[in-house]
Specification:
about 425 residues, mainly alpha, Growth Hormone, Chain: A, two-stranded antiparallel ribbon, globular
């Protein structure tokens, strides 16, 4: 009996050491992929509205690219969730990045041909890259201890900053290179996106072995809510609160961000200034992950979610009332918009991850991200309509106020405890 206990203890220690080693390795691979993914993400954000305006001749079409690629992201998120549940993160994420790369390349081709139907269809497939970027954050948490999930999520998101901030500032240069090849200058960032997404797909498919989700499911400790047990009610409330928070944060962020390049152009700002503001905004979406994950693990996801709602309100108010000629004012407003989104995404992702066991996690995460992506698509579509019939100021004000709808789901909830381990599996 004593020998059996000693062997069991040794096996647990060996398994824990293996988990820690795989956790570090998986994070490195995911981080590298996210850097390239971030470079691909920013093409649609920076020039999508401008390219659609040029191709259609109407500014109301400016919101369509964001609506379409976020709708594509919703479809891809559903695919990633189901495919991850069956085949793991490696296959699902690399496939989604590859589809995004094909979509970006098709955008360049159809824009050069002036083929509107093909251009808008390609934007839908380009959105698969966005889904891979966002779903990648969950991969960072698969092997993390329960009390470090928010920190792990934030590390993966942080890596997106490097590519995401570089992309908009390369818009002018890539545009010049596209023009040299006889292509519309605004397609330049999408050429960069195609290359970036392809590299992210290659990195994940080649190096994310063993798959973190599949390893955790096979060898990780059993968690509450598995083996057919009903999940505890408090985590279930946390999943709802986390989902609502992420949905609203995405809606507000996308709606205001999408119309900012057009608004700036109306007030005399050129592409370099637009690229600067968007790069600062995207940097604020991801760079705060240096500390937001640590804070969420230390103080709880609920307080961080409440803070996110108030920051989003402040960003909407600033965007609505600072002069359109004020580059600094718009940069601050868009920076706060990115920060509020970051806090909401980290807090919401942590609540969702903690609320379901690993046997159900990927499917639930995929479903939640479908809702998040659809909210972004709605924000992109209606932002163009609202701005076309009213003003950027009203759009920003309405967006800021919408963020407060998350508070009833957060204010009266106790924070959701980390999912607890019960025993080892996979003996």
């Amino acid at each position: 009996m004593g020998l059996s206990l000693r062997e069991g203890g040794r096996r647990l220690r060996d398994r824990e050491e293996e988990r820690k080693k795989l956790f570090r390795r998986s994070l490195k691979v995911l981080v590298l992929a996210q850097i390239f993914g971030g470079g691909g993400l920013t093409a649609g954000v920076t020039v999508g509205a401008l390219l659609a305006r040029d191709l259609t001749g109407t500014e109301e079409a400016g919101g369509l690219p964001t609506a379409l690629f976020t709708a594509g992201s919703a479809s891809a998120a559903y695919m990633i969730g189901r495919l991850s549940q069956k085949n793991g993160r490696r296959v699902a994420l690399s496939l989604s990045y590859f589809i995004g790369a094909l979509g970006a390349a098709a955008i360049v081709a159809f824009a050069a041909l002036g083929h509107l139907a093909g251009f808008f269809t390609a934007l839908f497939f380009y959105g698969a890259g966005l889904a891979a970027i966002l779903q990648g954050r969950y991969g960072g948490a698969d092997l993390a201890p329960p009390g470090e999930r928010a920190t792990a999520v934030s590390r993966v998101l942080l890596a997106t900053t490097l590519g995401a901030m570089a992309g908009p500032n390369l818009a002018a240069w890539t545009g010049q290179e596209a023009a040299r090849w006889g292509l519309p200058p605004l397609t330049g960032p999408f050429i960069l996106a195609a290359l970036s997404y392809f590299m992210a797909a290659f990195i994940l498919f080649t190096f994310l072995r063993p798959d973190p989700l599949l390893w955790m499911r096979a060898y990780g400790p059993r968690e509450e809510g598995e083996e057919g047990e009903s999940p505890p009610s408090l985590p279930a409330q946390g999943v709802t609160a986390g989902a609502v928070l992420m949905v609203l944060a995405q809606l507000v962020m996308v709606a205001i961000m999408t119309m900012t390049p057009l608004y700036m152009e109306h007030h005399g700002h050129g592409l370099p200034q637009v690229g600067l503001v968007i790069s600062l905004h995207i940097g604020a979406m991801y760079l705060p992950s240096l500390f937001t994950g640590i804070l969420a693990d230390r103080f709880g996801a609920i307080p961080m979610g409440i803070l996110a709602a108030w920051i989003l309100l402040l960003s909407g108010l600033l965007a609505a009332y600072v002069p359109g000629t004020s580059l600094g004012g718009l940069a601050v407003a868009l920076g706060l918009l990115g920060l509020g989104w970051n806090l909401g995404l980290i807090a919401g992702s942590t609540l969702v991850s903690a609320g379901v066991p690993s046997s159900q996690r990927a499917r639930t995460q995929g479903t939640v991200d479908v809702l998040v992506a659809l909210s972004g698509a709605s924000g992109g579509a209606f932002s163009g309509i609202l701005m076309g019939h009213s003003s950027y100021g009203l759009l920003s004000l309405v967006g800021g106020l919408i963020s407060l709808a998350a508070l009833p789901f957060l204010r009266f909830r106790k924070d959701v405890p980390s999912t607890r381990y019960t025993e080892e599996r996979g003996g």
